[in-house]
Amino acid sequence: xxxxxxxxxxxxxxxxxxxxxxxxxxxxxxxxxxxxxxxxxxxxxxxxxxxxxxxxxxxxxxxxxxxxxxxxxxxxxxxxxxxxxxxxxxxxxxxxxxxxxxxxxxxxxxxxxxxxxxxxxxxxxxxxxxxxxxxxxxxxxxxxxxxxxxxxxxxxxxxxxxxxxxxxxxxxxxxxxxxxxxxxxxxxxxxxxxxxxxxxxxxxxxxxxxxxxxxxxxxxxxxxxxxxxxxxxxxxxxxxxxxxxxxxxxxxxxxxxxxxxxxxxxxxxxxxxxxxxxxxxxxxxxxxxxxxxxxxxxxxxxxxxxxxxxxxxxxxxxxxxxxxxxxxxxxxxxxxxxxxxxxxxxxxxxxxxxxxxxxxxxxxxxxxxxxxxxxxxxxxxxxxxxxxxxxxxxxxxxxxxxxxxxxxxxxxxxxxxxxxxxxxxxxxxxxxxxxxxxxxxxxxxxxxxxxxxxxxxxxxxxxx
Length: 464
Ligand SMILES: [Zn+2]
What we know:
Among the domains are: about 5-55, no CATH class; about 125-385, Metal-dependent hydrolases (TIM Barrel). About 40% of the residues lie in helices and about 20% in strands. It has helices spanning about 5-30, 40-55, 55-65, 140-145, 150-165, 180-190, 235-245, 270-280, 295-305, 315-325, 335-345, 355-370, 390-395, 400-410, 410-415; strands spanning about 65-75, 80-85, 85-90, 95-100, 110-120, 125-130, 170-175, 200, 205-210, 230, 250-255, 255-260, 265, 290, 310, 330, 435-440, 450-455, 460. The strands form 5 sheets. Strands 1, 2, 3, 4, 5, 17, 18 and 19 form an 8-stranded mixed beta sheet that branches. Residues about 15-35 and about 50-55 have low confidence and may be disordered. Bound molecules: zinc ion. Zinc ion (ZN) binds near residues 127, 129, 174 and 379.
């Protein structure tokens, strides 16, 4: 029986449970030795039992060690892929990695021959919103105000599956945008194998300064539910930071600036408030990610001690140098910027590049020149889930070498997110989150679009 992918197992689970129940009922008849001929129902049940005996084979298959033989291995640690390498996976971990001449393949291993493929660590997207869907399908306001929570969660389960099957085995989801703590439940559903999806770091509702977020534009006498949790000042900030962490946030996401009332982007929290939030989170062992699009917002977030800055549109050489000095990583979210431009009517094949994207190109180059750590974070949700490779394509278009972009989505991201002792590299002892793509993405980053194999924790979710 062929190895069932985890995805197929999800589909089959319900069927197996029904069969198991029938088998349980049939067992006493078999024990009593009641004649089969005169019992047509029993005949049927025994047939089911025989079928059942075959079912656990798939589980046995899953427990067999796996030997992966790709054309090359991009291990995430170096920029040059290794040819003629073999990777052995046993259980949920990588057991051995190295030249085929040195690594012994266990005799009971199931072998994946991937002669045209590059094997790489499962990809990481450090900025997603699984509870959003593209704004050309429904505006952000409508998603926050009109879509029932159950609808949003249902969509999110599809988003998580698409993300995983496109090769992203870890995401940091930065805010539910009005969907409360649904990310905490989705993370649990994945951990409990109720739905397929990537590993999730979640941040729950995210924190905004009172009055700074949306939806906006309503009569001021009405209270409109907001897309993030409002806070400000010592008492309220401490309460909200601790409350979100208490409810399951792995990261605190705070908005250092906002376009107040649709006007220019301005910093919202004071430096002291940001420091307070960072301190409160840090003392509970939780890092902070700051949304910052203005130079002043980025400066304050940097000085406050956040660990990552999201977007960074308004950065310049000075602020990027400061970020580099303070070891603060940047999630550039280039794919979201592109999606916004397209939403506003930009047709890349016909129209010249919009000013805002040209500016992003310049600031991104300044960030690279200043030596800022770039981690792959796309703002997926603003554009389609499952299209996460777009961010890596843009990282390359905007100036990174393909292998560096791949590192920013593997080892570099894992390190920045405190996960490098578990994932982010093809290395013995790490969890077997692995992806194989056709071609060599260190030459042509678009090879990431041709995903052949996805493995998470040693379990195969997609196979050639
Ligand atoms: Zn975002």
